[in-house]
Amino acid sequence: MPIILKTGGPIPIPSGYHETVVTPKASRAVEAYWSFTARTAGRSVVLPDGRCDIMLRDNIHRRGAPVAIVTGPATRAYTVTYDIGDRWQGVRLRPANGVALWKDQITQASDRVLRSQDAHALVPALAALGCNDITPDDLAGALPQLQWQGAAQIDLAIDTLHASGGRIRIAALARFIGCTPRHLNRMFRSTIGLTPKTYAQLVQFHRALRLIKNPRQSITGSAFEGGYADHAHLTRAFRRYGGFAPSCVPHDLTLPTLFA
Amino acid sequence: MKLGYTIIYVADVPKTVTFYETAFGLQRRFVHESNLYAEMETGATALAFAGTETAEMNGIAILPNDPAAVAAGWEVCFVTDDVTVAYDRAVSAGCSPVTAPEQKPWGQTVSYVRDLNGCLVEIASPIAQPGE
Predict the structure, then answer these.
(1) How far apart are CA A74 and CA A78, in angstroms?
(2) N or C: which end of chain A has fewer CB within 10 A?
């Protein structure tokens, strides 16, 4: 689960959150474990970050097997409704490891969410996990291992893309990492499951969002620094990836570093 | 205000520090344990290196310096009495030659190289002050 955006009631404080984010790169370089327990009933918006998660959803006040959920790389904000005690425990994958989860389905996995039997069919080890006392290691154990040769190249591409705030041109990025734009495109689609352009737009959106959240920074200035040509361009990106207008960024947006 | 730091974003901070020691004869002032930031001993204005990933941490966006691309539009300039020796040392340490030392009409000897990351570095003699 990337960034949680609370839309009603008091902000639920994530409990048992074990991730230690040193840098944004560190948060991408390792699989991050996270958990979230709802203290009140409510609704949250989850902002897309282009990565896949494996999670288990249950309720700490009720007995029953947790529901396994596997997500494809998200490009759209989505709303989660929860009850008191609803709990998610998850593993967030490195962007380039989407393919480890989805295998040859990765190119069609964007914004897909598989639950229960469908999730088990994709990741059979999930079916074996019980309802109580699931540790991060259990989830990590359910993760398919990935070994492939182009990992260093795509990692460099992803890091460079992030450093540029999603603004480096795809042709320039391809040249920098030493391949053709066509190969870069294929590499992104076959590992992350998104085109470099879409992934870049997500990075650009998150950076602009962070800039705009500074109350001393104007929307116009943030749009310019974020690389949006004009206000319409900015508004379109915010509607698409956040579901809100740049002037209506919810004030209780959870800090990206928490769920980055 | 005063100019406190010149900070270059690089892929590998320790490697760049070592390179600047070898190629330009500088000394390190300190390297942070994270290996994401280092300063060279350059007097009141520190030449510093920061890991590329710190750009995102700080909310800024940068293009990577790229030895294979045209250099970015700025430079660091080192001043020395013997430009030729310094230039030769830089090139033998792995800098790409740009322009070999040449004397300018105003009496200054000037050369340019590009460092391991593709950043433009000028090596020049001091400009004689009026009256000297």
Answers:
(1) 9
(2) C
Q: Which residue of A has its CA nearest to B61?
A: A164
- Number of helices (H), then strands (E), belonging to chain B: the values are 3, 8
Question: How many of the other CB atoms lie within 10 Å of CB of A50?
Answer: 25
Q: Which of chain B's residues have a Cβ under 8 Å away from the Cβ of A24?
A: 53, 56-57
Contacts of B53 in chain A (CB under 8 A): 23-25, 159, 162-163
User: Is the CB of A23 inside 8 Å of chain B's CB atoms?
Assistant: yes
Taking CA atoms, B122 is separated from A40, A253, B22, in Å, by 62, 47, 16
Cα(B55)–Cα(B4) distance, rounded to whole angstroms? 18
Angle between helices A196-212 and A181-191 (to 10 degrees): 80
Sheet holding A78-82, edge to edge: A3-6, A42-47, A78-82
The complex's ipTM works out to 0.87
